[in-house]
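Per reviewer request, we include the raw input and output of the structure prediction for the construct analysed in the revised manuscript.
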Amino acid sequence: MVFNHVTMQTSILDIRNLKKLLSLSNQVSSESPLYDHHHNSVSSSSALSSSSVIDRNVITASNYLNFANDPGGLQIEQSCNGLLLCSTFGICSNIAEFARNYYVYNPTTGRYTILPSSEYRKPGYGSCFSVSLAFNPFRTPHYKVVCVSESDKADECQIEIYYSETCTWRLVGYSCSLTNIYGCGVYWNGLLNWHNVHDSLVYFDIDRELIGVVQMPDRTTVKNSLYFGACKGRLYYVETDCTGWANVSSLNIFEMKTDCTGWNVIYHVDIWKLRVLLYLQEIGYSNFGNDELKVLLVDGEEGEEDEEEDSPKLVFQVRDKVISYDLKESSLNKVYDIEPVFIRRYWQQCRIFHAYQYINSLASA
């Protein structure tokens, strides 16, 4: 998993040994050119500066990503099956027309691609609503990047797709259904999915180039969304009541049906039980406020074919602790301690605002 800290852009890479994907990634790499004029290459040591192994699954990379000499600095936007979509972090005078640069980067190989500008898109820093990476190495060695941006048509946005095999953008069409999305879509089951501002799930079928809408779980009261993401081939949504955090007693974890027709509730997590376990296991902060709990990942069950099935887990942050909660065994395990940072003469705790899954891959960026 990759964590971005608000204050330091520090990353943590949790590299999992997925034998099937690594095997296929080796095949993909052997069929693809290792280097051409569209790609740049840097060493892994320079990409993950000052790295040190915390345990067998966690590697830290201090400061921000530095694989490319971008004058605006880089931030992670999305992770997809071993590839990272990154973008310019800040605005500076060297960036023409305040344009944001986008990169597809493979931390395992150290190779990256700078996405070319699109002739269809308006220039400007804020013209894109969403830029999302779609990559399934089980199907193809190539990836696609979908950009949803402003258009000249009233109340409609335009959709473009970048194809890594041709290194070109194509204008797909226009839609009013994607005007209320924000951020990267969640890639799952061949679809890019967004939880939009109207509390609906909007998806874009990349191969069929179709847009669909699915309602979020039924509600009798107003809810607060805590997490929306995919893991191990499953799409998850986590919410809780937001009509008074002091009275919230549980988190509700939903899983999308495989045919994308609705949600099933699969777990209820008792927040008071979490507090008791934190106290008994002396992990700390058993008195945390409900608004201090941030869900980073739902690590669900593997498919039926997986011989080494792990118990499903909920990974969350409370203040400066990252904790894993076993949803079946009801046990806790501290994953990581977030070091405080010195800001304006005071030590402050780092706040994690994004978490990204990551696996080793030899796929070409």
